[in-house]
Amino acid sequence: MAAVVEFQQVSYTPPGQARQVLRNLSLTLESGETVVLLGRSGSGKTTALKLVNGLLFPTSGHVLVEGKSTREWDPVALKRRIGYVIQEAGLFPHFTVSRNIALPPRLNGWAPEKIQARTVEMLRTVGLEDYADRYPRQLSGGQRQRAGVGRALAAEPALLLLDEPFGALDPVTRLALQREFLKLKKTALFVTHDIREALQLGARVALLHQGDLAVVASPASFQQSQHPEARAFLEVLQSVG
Amino acid sequence: MWADLAREALSLTLEHLFLVVISVLLAALIAIPSAIALTRRERWQRPIVGLVNILQTIPSLALFGFLIPLPFLGGIGKRTAIIALVLYALLPILRNTLVGITGIDASVRESAVAMGMTPMQILREVELPLAAPSIFAGLRVAMVTTIGTAAIAAAIGAGGLGVFIFRGIASVDNAQILAGAVPAALMAIAADEGFSWIERKLSPP
Asked: What is the reported pTM?
């Protein structure tokens, strides 16, 4: 299996600040695999994600995407290779659902008939066939998130980055979307602060604690981890029952 | 006599409309690109908006007075009036364009960048369409206030409906004053309604 993303000794300090948000992160994401970045607020997990699609660049170390450092990638080309889903969905409010989903293929210069076919296909994948001509404001939170996932997948990206995509949803909708996400089987980096979600969706779980990578493990061995931060998260799981 | 008044009213109304449309158009051509540039240079926003704000506080009659003695720009007539009217119309357009663009949801902007849209594509497909209702609200305010201020431009020989008003005041003739004021008021109402309609059309559902 080829590494799609490779963090090599990556540190990141925001401009004008003294505090390192990430320290010496080394982590590899293989093709077809979902790695979940788990951590509290401020642990550096969102920063790690933004280092992959070139929204941020490492202060030291390298992030390789398909074997090439993000600094060597053309910034626009890199972003167009990668699907990105955020908690607020970030749909364009003045575009209909289908126009939102059609945007990445259009940016990638696809032919109009191919865009059209792909949009219909994606609407079906995320279960929004009947909402193609609605505007984001006319959708429920869950539907907006589906549309966001549909848009991220539309241009057949090599990689999906998801930043707490289901964080703002009610638990029932969230469970449904998590199950659908598992069916997608995409190469993905998934950021969450929800231990349950991490164990369900990740082939591996990478726990970040104050900028350090504390644990990387499969869900089964993560549950055996003795690391204090891992125990703290696992305790949450037990308290819910 | 009424026929003469009506004919003069028509020609002064057209002259007034000309002053207003030229001034607001020029102001828009300056203010909209400036506002777009300012969204890329946050440090400049406060000083520039502050400066334009100060222009707005100068009483219009005083501004006309200041401009008259200036070489090239000043003098008696339409050019001086248009310069003053442009200066007044800048603020609402500049401010509304700025607010319209900077007010766009951060998540929308972030996903536009993350999808690999170029700054030009973001401007054309995201920023301008989403700011359009706000920009047109600025144009509406600029139109309505310019219609009012342009009436004063007659004092420096720029023509327009102010001619009637000043003449009416000087000769204590209410008919003349109304012949100037009523068309100006109607013009302001029409501009207000027209631009409000465009604003509504451009707002996403």
From this structure: 0.86
